[in-house]
Amino acid sequence: MTASTVATAAVSDEARIIGVLTLAFSSDPMARWSQPDPQKYLENFPLIAAAFGGNAFANETAYYADGYAGAALWLPPGVGPDDETLTTLLERIAPEEIKNDMPGIFEQMEKYHPTEPHWYLPMIGVDPSQQGKGVGSTLMKHALVPCDRDGVIAYLESSNPKNISLYERHGFEVIGEIQVGSSPTLRPMLRQPR
Asked: What gap in Å lies between CA 138 and CA 111, rounded to an integer?
């Protein structure tokens, strides 16, 4: 494992960061359930990522490591995803056979989402060619500094069971399961400040 360096992304970094996240989520169970066609996935995932975590760029809470080997989009307290765009987008692009499941997933996500001030991690990912080198862990450590400094909880939904151990190593705990129809299981996770 090599030491990674983390930088705060500028708006001009957005395309590269969305690109690395598109690569990172290409085998993610929830991302591919919602976009099983490879061509449509490549066309639509960048739009989903921008709606889900794009507010991180304007808030200077989008981070990347080692020349875009990995990236994380964090939303600070009081900032959320662009829910309206995300809902409209998913209604338009979701395959017909899962469209009825999507509202239930969002309802359950809302049920677990903290109501008190918190940091929210909509997306973190590492280029598959760079995985296993500690990039994800470095990104996580970097972003958790303000959580601990300010005594604020952090929250995420894990869409890939392979990533749960990474989150647990950084203090997150699974607080439930979200599953509707044929969807994969999302696991909401909460971290108390240290």
From this structure: 30
The token pair that represents 169 in the structure block: 């190593």
- The answer to whether the pTM exceeds 0.90 is yes
Residue pLDDT, tens place only, 123-168: 999 999 999 999 999 999 999 999 999 999 999 999 999 999 999 9
112-47-130-168 Cα dihedral, nearest 10 degrees: 0
Cβ atoms < 10 Å from Cβ of 76: 18
The pair of structure tokens assigned to 48 is 């989903």
Burial 134-165 (b: 16+ CB within 10 A, else e): bbbbbbbebbbebbeeeebbbbbbbbbeebee
Torsion, Cα of 123, 80, 61, 67 (10° steps): 30
**Cα–Cα–Cα angle for 40, 44, 49, nearest 5°?**
145
Residue 174's nearest CA partner among 191, 160, 162 is 191
Topology (CATH level 3) of domain 6-191: Aminopeptidase (3.40.630)
Q: Structure tokens of 113?
A: 């989402």
Q: Parse the chain into domains and list their residue ranges.
A: 6-191
What is the sign of the dihedral through the CA atoms of 39, 91, 159 and 140?
positive
